Protein 1
Amino acid sequence: MTKDMIPLLGYRLKLAQHALHRRMEEALKSLGLNPAQYAVLAELNVRPDQTNADLAERAFITPQSMQGVLTKLEEARLVERQRDAHHGRRQLARLTVAGHAKAEAANAEVMRVELVLEAAVQPVSLQVAVDLMERLHGAMCK
């Protein structure tokens, strides 16, 4: 028996995620960034000196893909990497001055997208919507 996909919660959640990704791509395009690059800049803006693996996990991509993202950001002089003094094989990434500026500009664009999401949950409070997303995430991690 085939079930219609339209009422399925997971399908609707994936549609929303895909639309959000497209909206993020559009918002970041003028800055020459894609969502994965933005994720790295935003993460390093808050927590510098992270490894490739740490950043890959937070950007929802593989470590192999993250290597390419970091290389492009280095070429653009937005990120620099240096060897970890405690673990010789690991490299730690951090933002350059230009990287901090680009991260701030990108955050402003992403906040415009966030405002669209926040408006869409009305009349439900933002906290109720966040709590629902947390419950959905938790249910999928069991």
Protein 2
Amino acid sequence: MTATRFAEALNAQIGNELAAHNQYLAVAVHYDALTMPRLASFFYAQALEEREHAMMMVQYLLDTDAEVVIPGVEAPVPSFDGVVAPIELALAQEKRVTDQINNLLRIAREESDFASEQFMQWFIKEQVEEVATMSDLLTVATRNAENLERIEEYVAREQGGEGEDATAPKAAGGA
């Protein structure tokens, strides 16, 4: 049985993940408008990944007979100056999500909700990867802000092609 306090916090996190989806969508559109197709594609994929995280959380709540409440989300930052600012925002967002995920784990532990604690372990690992990816991307974008082709080359070379993670939780609505 999922602890009520954890279920409430996880429902709030579903909203945070969906807000992250919308923010990454806005970032992707920004790069698409700059004719940076590789960076746009990277952020479109990031948006889908954030939605998938939300759906994993939905499925967990469904599996544990906890109530699912899809919260409303704030509008994303709609526009940016240049190529670096959206990545700075993305890194800050990933650090914020890391804090949120860590808090969920803390709640599960405080409530002795061992199944929920185990569920959160995958997200802890995922956030380490997300922060590292955005940090590296920010370094490259900052260094090459005047050479968009180099940023695009980096994304083409270093991002994508990860494949599915067999350890990932099941997502609601997934095939």
